[in-house]
Amino acid sequence: MYRFGYNRVVEPQGFIPISSWKLDNSKAIGSREVRLSISMIKLEEGSFRQLYNMCGYDEARIKNRIMDIVKKRGKLHNPTTDSGGICYGKVDEIGAQYQGKEALSVGDEVICITSLTAIPIHIENIKAIHFNYGQIEVEGYAILFESTPVIKAPLDVNLNCAMYAFDESGALAKARAVVQPGQRILVMGSEMLSVLFYSAAIKHAVAGDCRIVAVLDKVGVSGVDQSEIDSLLGGYVDAFYLTDVVGAMSAYKQIRQDEFGNCQDNFDTSIICGNLLGAEVISVLLTKDKGTLFFTSLINNYNLILLFAESVGKSVNVIALEEYREGFPSVTLALMRILNDKLSEVDRIYNNDRILNKLPTTTRDLINNDGVTKLGDYIFASPKTGEMLAEVINIASYDCSVIIHGETGVGKEKILELIHQNSKRRTNACVRINCATIQESLAESEFFGYEAGSFTGASSSGKRGYFELANHGILFLDEVGELSLPLQTKLLRVIQDNQFYRVGGQTPIKVNVRVVCASNISLRELVKQGKFREDLYYRLNICEINIAPLRERKADITCLADHFLSKYNEQYMQHKRFNREAHFEMVSYSWPGNVRELENTVHRAFIANKADVMGGEAVRRAISRNLYADALPEKPQSAGHDVINLSEAMAQHERAIIEEVLKREVTTREAAKILGISQSQLMRKKTKYNL
Predict the structure, then answer these.
(1) What share of the chain is helix, strand, coil (3-state, %, to 5)?
(2) Burial class (CB in 10 A: 0-12, 13-18, 19+), 233
(3) Is the dihedral of CA 358, 363, 369, 371 positive or negative?
(4) What is the per-residue pLDDT for 196?
(5) For residue 25, what are the CA distances in angstroms to 165, 615, 655?
(6) Distances (CA, A) of 38 to 70, 96, 113, 139
(7) pLDDT score, position 302
(8) What is the pTM of this model?
(9) Do residues 153 and 111 lie in contact, with contact meaning Cβ atoms separated by under 8 Å?
(10) Is 321 left (phi over 0), alpha (psi -120 to 50) or beta?
(11) How crowded is the C-beta side of 399, counted as CA atoms within 13 Å?
């Protein structure tokens, strides 16, 4: 248990470190652990690219995102790409009973070559980002276990290149193993260093008896002279192409014609050594039938390769990644020493302050219209929303409980839909329940069902409850904080045991349900107030998604407004649009009702205005109705002066506000909560104002 860090798992309990959501990264070590004072981290390529694309190459934002991941998870485990990296540092302390495979002493400089998704780390500060190497300089520590593979840092090779190479050591060894003498080999990479390493590893494996053709994306090496690339790859690559890999078919035709002409032959083996969008098409088309495709990373659209190969009727041997084996690091180190002069040249190019490798991570990064992105039915332009959605998509793949926090109207059910559509349960039911609408006297029978004749008025055939209806699917509990404490106790028991009894039943019913909850009130605060069970909170809060209010992601406002306008144009067969002044008014408003209020405002403005172009005044009037709903009475004339009866105006204002809230909310309980009054007070005011 202690050899691989099982005791460091915080949540969910029972998981191993690499698949857990959070690890204990406290500094004190156990008797079989080692603490490493880390100063450099090499991020996995797909993870680093996802981070810098999402953060727009803004160093401060990238640093904050990395720090946030480590703070939340106790390890460097990017939830979007499900990957981490490796680290370098000095041994700070060794447990008294530690017996790792590598004999370590305090002060040793080592490279931890296991994934940072599997070990606890703490980062105090990120000092610098090296974009071209995908590395960050840090101050912090990592906790290593007896099973953690480490290698003492070599002093005779460039550290940046060494970190890069050791992160690829398993794949480099596999590349050597899959090639045969006399073969024609295609190597595709997103930057020079990976192509150099893999080409050199292959050439040495077959003693030079092969033809290697390298493909580099011209965007990935923009700013580097072709002569520099030629000098760097010379001796290991027989031909190389700088091309637009994203435009896959054009690149394929060029390479196919140059290499094979009218001959029907193709490459024996293709090696994709970068997270390179478009490589899947080129590699399948240029690899011969029964040939080999080797992916050095699982991020590289592996599933798309299989589907595309099938669609063109080609049988290929697809290999993805390589597991760790002893001896890999020594093979990699030997290769680096052979390449020492060329690695110095790479280091000179990479350290000239140019960011060479600005490439997208997924097709979705390319589908972008004026900064507006669509993910399913979710439309956004704000980077903050993009980061949140990336986390949602990753969390969806983990079959665990989730709490969605957000104000009323932010779109919590849209997030639920994304979780459902991207989860393993997408083909099964997603049962949605608003807990605020359930009568306390009926709550138990609604959740757990009842047997025939179990109480007066019960159906003669009995009834299945929410848990049975959601079996093998998702049960969504909206406004979960409204559940009574007794019902919370029963809910906890079902989630823990995966079984329950129907009302009036004597036989336990087993279920397999993923519970997703939502609340517009902090459940943590409800726990502090004694209104929500702490043990249930921790059982539900394996993963937490916080949806920012619209006022904190203003970049989303205009794209959402235009989307809603397009929807109503289609519905009413019109051609209306907002001008810049209208957009300015929308962005200037705080939207307390969030996306729901924005959609209602667009709808109201659409109907109220006959002109095709709607300006600021149209939006102001629609927003004004949101706030006041024409609360002021008509002004009577008395002795030539305007007279307003204050009591009457206040009453009409109160009536208008209550009426507006009742229109927006499903239940009187929700409406009362928003108005800050009790449900009984609201019912009396409804009667008073005849609502």
Answers:
(1) 40, 20, 35
(2) buried
(3) negative
(4) 93
(5) 27, 54, 55
(6) 14, 21, 13, 6
(7) 61
(8) 0.59
(9) yes
(10) left
(11) 10
